[in-house]
Amino acid sequence: MPLTRDQIVQRAARELRDGYIVNLGIGIPTLVANHVPAGMDVWLQSENGLLGIGPFPTETEVDADLINAGKQTITARKGASYFSSSDSFAMIRGGHIDLCILGAMQVSQHGDIANWMIPGKMVKGMGGAMDLVAGVKRVVVAMEHNAKDGAFKFVNKCSLPLTGQNCVHMLITDLAVFEFDEAKKKFVLTEVAPGETVQSVRAKTEAGFGVAEAVRTVAV
Fold this sequence. Notes:
Elements (H helix, E strand, L loop, with lengths): L4 H9 L7 E4 L18 E4 L3 E4 L22 E7 L2 H9 L5 E4 L3 E3 L4 E2 L14 H7 L3 E4 L11 E2 L14 E3 L3 E6 L4 E7 L5 H6 L6 E8 L3
Parallel strand pairs: 1-2, 1-5, 5-8, 6-9, 8-10, 12-13
Antiparallel strand pairs: 2-3, 3-4, 6-7, 10-11, 11-12
């Protein structure tokens, strides 16, 4: 049974560590803000100039002037800091972000990511994704395993314009979790969604991947 979007981000939130500075990409990853483990001190950063994003606001908490890079209304935690977009990108390009969790249109078996445009469709802009995959210490992608029409998203080679090459460390989808093995230069399947098997995941995947000796079931 495929994971829901909330279950995908719950699994992604397990990659957070105490004291981390983390950037959340547009789409599914923004939901991670609602799933930071209790008692963990994590600083969520937005490239439009905020360090210290809190959970999404309730109707009574909405402040139209407080938004993330995806133009969603957000809250700010105690101790949050506001600054210019140029300072924000200096943090990213300077290697000061420990982890980013991004969405994607495609991820290749080599760790490439395409997540900023589809040719022929209107694009708001490339955002900060290219800087993030180049400057952040660890890149995790959280996405649905296949497109709505069933097309592969975890592919041999990205057919869409690349955001970055050889930069994805972990891929979390609604079907499985893959970790990139630097020594073997390929992704390794480590976890499957409840009810899924290695075979059922392979049937919906174009990319080649290895399989861990002990494949776990994603805890939901």
